[in-house]
Amino acid sequence: MAIREILIYPDDGLREVARAVEFPLTGEVRALIQDMADTMYDAPGVGLAATQLGMPLRIAITDTDWRSGEVRHEDGSEPVAARNLKVWINPEFTWRDEGVVACEEGCLSVPEIYEDVDRPAAVRLRWQDMEGETHEADFEGFLAVALQHEFDHLDGILFIDKLSRLKQSMIKKKMKKRKKLQNS
Ligand code: NI
Fold first, then answer.
1. How far does the centroid of ligand 1 lie from the alpha carbon of residue 116, in Å?
2. What's the pTM?
3. What CA–CA distance (Å, rounded) separates 158 from 171?
4. C-alpha of residue 168 to centroid of ligand 1, in Å
5. Could you confirm whether 150 is annotated as catalytic?
């Protein structure tokens, strides 16, 4: 169990195209997945791709439920246990809806930036679980958006790449300034 450092834009590691995971999973990959969960819950975030930890493997995790009110402890403290952790290995979209939705997105690798991004409203996904079994299912709503965001990371793509050039250069400036402040 360990929290790992999340790469922050414009780190070059975020641009790596991740490679497919082979089965059975090695102990190292299992430890990575555990650390990804620890890191995501600690951040806190609702999704994390292995690329964001500088490990270019086609693995992403999500838990789009855990920050909602009902999973908080009765004493009001933050939840400590995984509630609906999903592990997606070698994910691949086999269909994308023609209909598009705009949803506000943020990213642990691009802190404090939140912008609307247009994406297909629904997707069909094929992926493998930790045992290597293949699944296929349709997703819509917030989870569909989260999955598209996370799997873009595996191809070195960030949500800010989908914004206007002007916005992108403003964000880059902001992030460089932030880095300078942290290093000073
Ligand atoms: Ni992200």
1. 14
2. 0.90
3. 12
4. 15
5. yes
Alpha carbon distance 54, 18 (integer Å): 10
pLDDT the model gives residue 67: 56
DSSP-derived secondary structure for 111-156: EEEEEEEEEESEEEEEEE-TT--EEEEEEEHHHHHHHHHHHHHTTT
If you measure from the C-alpha of residue 111 to the centroid of ligand 1, how many angstroms do you get, rounded to a whole number?
A: 10
Cα separation of 104 and 118, whole Å?
9
Separation between Cα atoms, residue 18 and residue 50, nearest integer Å: 8
Q: Which residue do the tokens 């699944």 mark? A: 135
First to last CA, the chain: 31
Instruction: Work out the number of other CB atoms within 10 angstroms of the CB of residue 28.
Output: 9
For domain 12-183, the question of CATH label 3.90.45.10 is answered with yes
Q: How far is the CA of 149 from the centre of ligand 1 (A)?
A: 6
pLDDT class of 123 with cuts at 50, 70, 90: very high
Would you kindly state where each structural domain of the chain is located, as residue ranges? 12-183
